[in-house]
Amino acid sequence: MSSHIESPQIxxxxxxxxxxxxxxxxxxxxxxCPVSTPRExxxxxTHDSDIRGVLADTxxxxxxxxxxxxxxxxxxxxxxxxxxxxxxxxxxRNRLRxxxxxxxxxxxxxxxxxxxxxxxxxxxADGEIELYERFVRVIPASVMHTFIGIPEExxxxxxxxxxxxxxxxxxxxxxxxxxxxxxxxxxxxxxxRRARPTERSDDVLDNLCFAAPGERTMSDAEIVTHIxxxxxxxxxxxxxxxxxxxxxxxxxxxxxxTVVADRTLLPNAIEESLRVDSPAQFLVRTRKVxxxxxxxxxxxxxxxxxxxxxxxxxxxxxxxxxxxxDPEREDAPxxxxxxxxVHACLGAPLARIEAIAAIGALMDRYPGMRLSPRATWVxxxxxxxxxxxxxxVALAPLP
Length: 399
Ligand code: HEM
Hints:
- Helix 11 (220-251) crosses helix 12.
- The protein has one domain (16-394): CATH 1.10.630.10.
- Helix content is 46%, strand content 9%.
- The radius of gyration is 21 Å and the shape is globular.
- By secondary structure, the protein is an alpha+beta fold.
- Residues 63, 66, 81-82, 93, 147, 230, 233-234, 237-238, 241, 279-280, 283, 337-339, 343, 345-347, 350-351 line the site of protoporphyrin IX containing FE (HEM).
């Protein structure tokens, strides 16, 4: 992993100098200052045990303001599932369980494999290509949009606008035209769906538009908020996982070759990728009462930035080789890349199915694939996501 900065400054999530590669700055923070306060009212936690402690404690911490590290939170007409606390959160999570039950998600495997097959069919037999745009980017978007119930003719627009929104956060979204356009598109879909109450399906839009007996009827604006959150939560994160895992396997070609030869190693390689390059870099919680963390005073209303990336690289948990990508690391699935506790990721089984299908299909078709000698990891924009902007590969080994 890259770490070329001499005497790195302690990590500050709002310092643009730290965006391109936060890893050395997080390491400096873990070593020197497990709780730092780079801005008034914003405390950064980098130790795995402290982060797990906060994630488990819904009495002391609220999800209000999650993902927002600016003093002003992103104004949304309704709390999204990741920003809500009980009982609003419990009600919504229970409602979404219909779509997210792990047994139901597992039945989607063949359908996901079909999406991957059509994406890979469009690639050439050999030569050098940029794999992120040509292959990786389309898979989670197609899966997510179908899962939600967004018709295919709107996929491209939803994807383009959603990508701009993700790259813009944590800056406020209020003035961003693409944010308004995406909400407008989703609002139109909700209205259309509600106008056809007899045409039912098993997607998320159907679930939220039509209350079952004993469930609350949601307003159109509330449904739009939840669907918006899902587009953001399920698309960019999963694309990052697929891109990151391909990169780490190809970075040392013997890793790729080992997993090609023994495909049972792929699921663990994906867990190790989630650990070493956490697609969602951080979560935010808001303190409900005055108190201390590791002896540092934290006041009611203060924000606590939980670096999932740092927790997943913490030497105290993962040992002296924490920074090394080892597809055969036995405890890799213990990472916190999908969060923990009552808000743990609902889509994790689907993300794993997508990653296995996408990388497995590449291994079938291009067993000799290599990173291009011209490939360099340049981190994508924004502070939430970790992935290379481009994945330049030679589909067959170079002569
Ligand atoms: C590699 C891919 C993914 C990563 C790394 C990821 C990461 C996360 C994390 C860290 C959380 C916890 C949020 C918190 O505690 O505040 C979360 C929650 C969530 N994720 Fe994912 N996610 C991924 C894929 C997906 C997919 C594919 C979907 C949808 C199909 C999804 C839907 C959700 C939902 C609905 C929640 C909210 C759960 C709640 O607040 O109760 N995620 N995700």
